[in-house]
Amino acid sequence: MATMSVDFSSKLESLVNNAVKKVQDNPIKKVFFVLGNESADLDSIVGSISYAYLSTQFCPLNTVYLPIIQIPRFDLSLRPECNFIFQKCEISTASLIFLDEISDHLYIISKSYSLSLVLLDHNKLIGIWNQFADKVDTILDHHQDEGLYLNIKERYIEGVGSATSLVVLKFKDKWENNLNDNKQIDKDTQNWDKIIANLLLSAILVDTVLLDFSQGRTTQKDQDAVDFLLDILHPSDPKTFIKDYYNEIQNAKFNISHLSNFDLLQKDYKEYNLEWNIKNETKICVMGISSVVWILKDWILREDGVEKFMETVGNYIQEKNLDLEIIMLAFDHKGDLGFKREMVIYSKKGPFCQKEVLERFEEIIGLNEIKDFRNVNSDREKEESIIKCYEQKNISMSRKKVYPIIKNMFLEA
Predict the structure, then answer these.
(1) Coil, strand or helix: which one is 232?
(2) Which residues form the DHHA2 domain (predicted)?
């Protein structure tokens, strides 16, 4: 496997060493961390790596761009589609930087260099990054606008299918000019242009479900980004090429049945603190949303029944100290069934324990309760909790659309 032409991990080590030794002639003055979101899905990982790589090609010599994958290195094993893409694109994961490898160095880097942050696929800092709110320089995102960092250098929050499309379009003109000006460039450079184009293409195809406009997850900007990447790749049959590529990624992505229950729920997980008002007192509800690419009936079958499955979810809620867990399941069935979504709601407290609030949510999202998966305890109140399994009719409702709906319902409850 080839090593990425930009070894970000080595650059980080060099930065830290120079900072510790206080090297006077160190040419590096500015450091940009490119942060994907905390779920570290394909869109976030690919977008942040590609943004850093392309920025490196066009940035001043005194500036370094480092992508930070917002999970521990070990957790990459939970993302088979990412490992597949890295292998296909000949990118060594050893050249990448993960959250657990940067956290101990944040203080010395922030004190030794001019530090800036690029937020990719999210627009609100969390965790250890909250201390650097004044360092946010650029945002490229397609989620609900949280209304933060309004006076930064670049702020592009648009409802495109994939945040990676915004990366492509940001660098398109410079990249295109570079290709036109260097038609006789060496084969190694040409190869890396194609590798990065393949890398970028993977995330856009997955997030737009193969550029399917009918599902409401694709825009013309996503199509424009793909068209540009295909111009670089020059496949003989573009339609067949992207279809086969998408299917390869999906086959890797759905190879997860061997994962433990905790890993399934943690693989693509986001956590939120939601405010709601009860008796003129503001309460905080800690909500987790887990995206799982599997079929609910197969998961329940593996657990030997719905009772064991509900126990699994309950244990996860207890370990994460959640008040509300929402599992969004999705699977791309081959043949006539196509792409399907399901949802599980387990609420220990909060507005979702109120019948009228839950019914309104069911109506907005298009949820039909699956009677066959009804837990025997779900029809009676037990510690004011509810547990329900649904078929989701409105398949356009992805997590990025569902979260703001839930947030508003909490505020209105």
Answers:
(1) helix
(2) 246-410
User: What is d(CA 313, CA 301) in angstroms, rounded to the nearest whole number?
Assistant: 15
Question: Where are the chain's structural domains?
Answer: 8-252, 261-412
Helix/strand/coil for 204: helix
Q: Which of the residue ranges 46-50, 278-282, 286-290, 362-366 would you say has the lowest mean pLDDT? A: 278-282
Distances (CA, A) of 266 to 41, 81, 220, 263, 306: 11, 15, 32, 5, 20
pLDDT in tens, 251-300: 898 888 788 999 999 999 999 999 988 878 888 999 999 999 899 999 99
pTM: 0.83
- Phi/psi of residue 96, each to 5°? -100, 165
Number of H helices, E strands in the chain: 14, 12
Using DSSP's 3-state secondary structure scheme, residue 68 falls into strand
State the architecture of 8-252 in CATH terms.
Alpha-Beta Complex (3.90)
Helix, coil or strand: residue 74: helix
Kindly report the CA angle at 337 between 332 and 339, in degrees rounded to 5?
A: 30
Say if residues 367 and 343 touch (Cβ distance below 8 Å): yes
